[in-house]
Each structure stands twice: as C-alpha cells, then as structure tokens.
Design brief:
By secondary structure, the chain is mainly alpha-helical. It is built from six helices and three strands, in the order ααααβββαα. The protein has a three-stranded antiparallel β-sheet with strand order 1-2-3, covered by helices on one side.
Length: 124
C-alpha cells in the first residue's frame, strides 16, 4: 500500500518526530525537510546513547524524518507500507529503503550518516 504524497500525509509523518524535533530544537537545528537539516542532525553530539528508552524513540523518529526528507526531495520516491505495517520508502528505481532501521543504526552508532543515505537515494 502506498501512502499519498499530499501535504496532509507528509505533515502527519513529520509530526511523528516529536522527540527528534525537541532534541534538534534544543541544539538550534530546524527540521525543515531539507538535506541541510539531515547534515545538521549528523553533527549533533549523541548524548541520547546513554538512555536506552530515548535511544529507541529517537532512532524511530530519525528514521521517519529521514524517510520524509527522501520523499520530499528525491523525484519518484514514495512511502510504502509493508503487509506487517512497517513503513519503507520506494525509490523510482524500485529499490526500497528502510529508513526506520537506518534511523536506529544512526541513533545507536552514528552510521550511516542520514545525509549520506539521502545522497545515495538521490543517485538511484
């Protein structure tokens, strides 16, 4: 099932990133759906890694935000929901990206950088 790319759907996905938005705002980073915002997130000091509960939520938020930026900026990219309810981004090439998994990896290890995932998706 594909999610509509209308403004309402995108706004809802962005709104789900409440913890990430709060952390970013506290560091002076505005999450505006741009590549620059992903680069700024990549530069944050990962103080959340000491708190397992925060780590989980922040990883989820980072993934949803990453996916939203890809959908907003990469032509032909769209959200798709797997049968189990898991959101992925399908690129025009047909390749699927699991931004939530990547967000968790980023939150836990700092890798992959969110901006690098976007760059790779843009090349696809």
């Amino acid at each position: 099932m594909e999610i509509s790319q209308d403004a309402t759907g995108i706004d809802e996905l962005l709104a789900e990133c409440e913890l990430l938005r709060a952390r970013a705002a506290a560091e002076g980073v505005e999450l505006d759906g741009s590549e620059g915002s992903l680069s700024a997130l990549d530069q944050l000091v990962p103080s959340w890694r000491d708190d397992p509960e925060t780590l989980t939520w922040l990883g989820n938020d980072a993934g949803l935000y990453l996916g939203t930026v890809i959908v907003l900026t990469v032509p032909g990219a769209a959200w798709q929901i797997w049968p189990d309810g898991h959101p992925v981004v399908r690129l025009a090439s047909g390749r699927e990206i699991d931004p939530v998994e990547l967000g968790h990896d980023w939150a836990e290890n700092g890798s992959p950088e969110l901006s690098q995932v976007l760059a790779e998706a843009s090349e696809d």
